[in-house]
UniProtKB/TrEMBL annotation:
This is U8 snoRNA-decapping enzyme. Its EC number is 3.6.1.64. One of its GO terms (cellular component) is nucleoplasm. Belongs to the Nudix hydrolase family. NUDT16 subfamily. The lineage of its organism: Eukaryota, Metazoa, Ecdysozoa, Nematoda, Chromadorea. InterPro entries: NUDIX_hydrolase-like_dom_sf, NUDIX_hydrolase_CS, NUDIX_hydrolase_dom, NudT16. It holds the Pfam family Nudt16-like.
Amino acid sequence: MIRFDGRIGFPGGTIEPGETWLEGVNRELREELDVDTSNDHLITDDHYVFSFLNKASGNCLHLYACEVTEEKFVDIERGAHDAEHYGSETMGICRIPLHTSDKGTGLPCFLQHYFIGYAKEALLRALKHTGILSEEEIGLAVKLARESESARQI
């Protein structure tokens, strides 16, 4: 999603007192994307991907990923504009190009955007964890993104 500061990131935030991680994840999805987390769309332990401890801030970040149908994704895209935090914390959802063209466009170009914190690493781990892309496909996209960034700095 696009954040208020122009960076790319994921829905999330601080867990409130008395809240479990999963309750916090589902609350943030409702607040930031207006996702109906009841029934079929509730994030559960089955959706856990990994955790990362940010030693500098002391925050522990947890990534969850779940599969939704294309129809549900379109509903989420449209509904994001009705979310409680739309316009203040979030500016909307972006689709990620999952291909790498012969010219190095697609995912390599997307990876050159400015991500918040560890969001880029989280995205790449989620793509691998879910089997959306192979380790080789991800590695190629990262390599081409780095080469393109280096070429622009010359």
